[in-house]
Write a structure and sequence with these properties.
heterodimer, A: alpha/beta, Rossmann fold, five-stranded mixed beta sheet, 13 helices, 16 strands, globular, B: alpha/beta, eight-stranded mixed beta sheet, two-stranded antiparallel ribbon
């Protein structure tokens, strides 16, 4: 066994390992996945660590079955996750919708590479932000988190498991390939340093009528490990509080509202973010993932030169923290969204702020990291100073 | 326990059409469960989408009604997580072998201890009578108005080749035989496949002039023979029934437990060696 000394808790690792460390800290005990660049190291690390810690690892035949398998395992009471990249995430959408409808906690990691299709398998992108929101069919709400450093990714992964349990919902962790494969320091928190949310189990004894889909007054739905003392039904159809299919308009209406409200009405509470020098900023940079590191560099340099530049780094992408963004941009002359796609978060920011015409995009979609120069060039152009 | 104690009576009458063979399979399955003396809490039924998948709604066990074709993938997650549970997976022919074909192959390859029951009526019933990968050539279906040109899978050969360690076939006419096969399949440790030729008078029968449910049952009796029957040599068109594969092959969850034990023993040996080094 490793001694839990301070030095043993300081690692120099790639982002995918930081994600695994976070998942293990959170108590993951089931992983199903299919190899895909740039997420494969997550599966490799899990295949080594889980059998040694009483967990289960299985390499499935595709991403469809991986998603299905973690749902099955989660139902039986385990914290379960899978990891993939764009093409695999596309295949997971069907079962992701099932997990939303059947309210099954699980974590899905999507290490974003360039798309569409096979795209740029070994290079970074943030092109799956909208897919995380609307990839599966039908009205639904979803939680998607992201991070820009290994330490933050560790904490984001723990938070994803916590929110999955709290909201009885799948939670998506999105990060770009650059973070996945870059190596940097990670300090493992001591057990107990970060709060963990465990499965809320029903206190209804076996043999007594249990309602798997009856929310408590605080909105949470206590679960009973599937295969245990309560027999109930789980389905992707609209269902009643016992889990049996229903087409009763009242039942359908209420379930749809429940699935939506349990996440959307907690948007402000779910909003996780970092900010830098926003108080008096006339130029607000909004970013997330590795581009936020460049945005920070631009803001620091700008401040040194007397420019009032601030950064809002989003760590919750969905539900989109519109109120937070609106407040942060209230006094801004210019808002620049920095991201590795064609403006997926830019569109959300435009919808959130009072003056959408002041929102601009500093992006790259060529697989290259966004450098501070890419951002400062956009600022110069917007300010009318040319390149 | 009485057979009817295993069902959720409040959902009857069931949704299946008059004459459908699926109720017969449900009946045989309940009798097999009763004969095995399994308690309701130790059984999980996982199903996909289609007429056959609706079986899970009627049985008072742990029931997981999933996505079209994906039942075995969900079942794999449940089984690996809780190997002590008995898992039954009823599937239709399209569910199991068209959209779910890949999951079927790999569940068989792993030899994970699930009982796959394929209710093969050679048609998509719930969507209104389209041909399936088990329809075979020359069949009338709503998507084959000029008759099918697709060849069919042979479920037995497919299962055997994919690695299933128990493979059997019978029909809804041979109810007692079906019950016995289900008892064997559920008791078997490893991936078990029971193909049940079942009748869909509403869609298959009507479009292919096979008459009533009774006519279709009689036809299944005439078209099949026990697999060791001499008649098979005389008429290669006959379909053999029986247990085709019953082999002792390491099961996936047991192999996983072995792997964990091996890893734990290695870790222990390493720790002892490290202690010895420290003492020196």
């Amino acid at each position: 066994m490793e001694a839990a000394t301070t030095s043993d808790r300081t690692l120099f690792v790639h982002g995918n390992q930081a994600c695994v460390e976070g998942a293990l800290y959170a108590g993951v005990s089931f992983y199903a996945g299919y190899p895909i660049t740039p997420s494969s190291e997550i599966a490799e690390e899990m295949s080594s660590r889980l059998p040694a810690s009483g967990g289960k690892f299985i390499q499935m035949e595709d991403e469809i079955s991986s998603m299905c398998a973690i749902i099955g395992a989660s139902l039986t009471g385990r914290k379960a996750m899978t990891a993939t990249s764009g093409p695999g995430f596309s295949l997971m959408q069907e079962a992701l919708g099932y997990a939303i409808m059947a309210e099954i906690p699980c974590v899905i990691v999507n290490v974003m590479r360039g798309g569409p299709s096979t795209g740029l398998p070994t290079q970074g992108s943030q092109g799956d932000v909208n897919q995380a929101r609307w990839g599966t069919h039908g009205d639904h709400a979803i939680i998607a988190l992201t991070a820009s450093s290994h330490q933050a990714l560790f904490e984001t992964t723990v938070r994803a498991f916590n929110l999955a349990e709290t909201c009885r919902s799948p939670v998506i962790v999105l990060y770009d390939e650059l973070l996945a494969h870059m190596r940097e320091r990670l300090i493992l928190p001591e057990p107990g340093d970060l709060p963990l949310v465990e499965r809320l189990r029903t206190f209804v004894p076996g043999g007594v009528d249990y309602h798997p889909y009856l929310a408590r007054s605080d909105g949470r739905l206590p679960m009973s490990d599937f295969g245990g003392v309560h027999r109930y039904n789980v389905t992707g159809l609209f269902h009643d509080m016992w889990g049996f299919p229903s087409t009763d308009p009242t039942v359908v209406h209420e379930l749809m509202h429940h699935l939506h409200d349990k996440i959307v009405q907690r948007t402000n509470e779910l909003a996780s973010y970092c900010q830098y020098a926003l108080e008096d900023a006339d130029t607000v940079l909004i970013s997330y993932g590795t581009p936020a590191r460049s945005a920070m560099q631009v803001a620091r340099k700008g401040r040194e030169n007397g420019h009032r530049v601030g950064v809002l780094e989003l760590e919750t992408l969905w539900p989109f923290p519109a109120q937070l963004v609106r407040d942060a941009c209230a006094n801004a002359r210019v808002v620049i969204v920095v991201e590795m796609n064609m403006g997926q978060v830019r569109d959300q920011v435009r919808a959130a702020v009072r003056e959408p015409s002041r929102v601009f995009l500093a992006n790259r979609v060529d697989g290259e990291f966004i450098r501070s120069k890419d951002i400062s060039t956009v600022i110069r152009l917007v300010d009318g100073h040319g390149v | 326990m009485a057979v009817d104690s295993y069902i959720r009576k409040r959902f009857f009458p069931h949704i299946w059409c008059p004459g459908c063979g699926h109720g017969t399979v449900l009946n045989a399955l309940l009798r097999a469960i009763e004969a095995l003396g399994l308690s309701k809490n130790e059984i999980v039924m996982v199903s996909g989408i289609g007429c056959s998948a609706r079986i899970s709604g009627y049985v008072d066990v742990h029931t997981l009604h999933t996505l079209h074709g994906r039942a075995l993938a969900f079942a794999t997650g449940v089984k690996l997580s809780r190997p002590e549970l008995t898992i039954l997976v009823p599937m239709g022919d399209g569910d199991a072998l068209a959209i779910g074909g890949n999951h079927f192959l790999h569940a068989a390859r792993r030899n994970i201890d699930l009982t796959a029951i394929i209710l093969n009526n050679r048609i998509y019933g719930m969507t209104g009578g389209q041909f399936s990968p088990l329809s075979g050539c020359g069949i009338q279906a709503t998507t084959a108005p000029y008759s099918t040109i697709d060849h069919a899978f042979d479920v037995v050969e497919l299962s055997r080749a994919a690695g299933a360690s128990f493979v059997a076939r019978t029909t809804t006419f041979h109810v007692r035989e079906l019950e016995k096969m289900l008892i064997q399949a559920i008791s078997h440790r490893g991936f078990s496949v029971v193909e049940v030729l079942s009748q869909c008078p509403t869609h298959f029968g009507r479009r292919n002039q096979e008459g009533s449910a009774v006519d279709m049952l009689k036809k299944m009796k005439q078209a099949t023979v026990p697999l060791n029957s001499g008649k098979l040599d005389l008429d290669p068109g006959l379909i053999p029934r029986g247990v085709f594969v019953d082999s002792d092959k390491p099961e996936y969850c047991e192999l996983y437990a072995d792997l964990v034990a091996r890893k734990s023993a290695d870790d222990q040996a390493e720790s002892v060696a490290a202690d010895a080094r420290n003492e020196v």
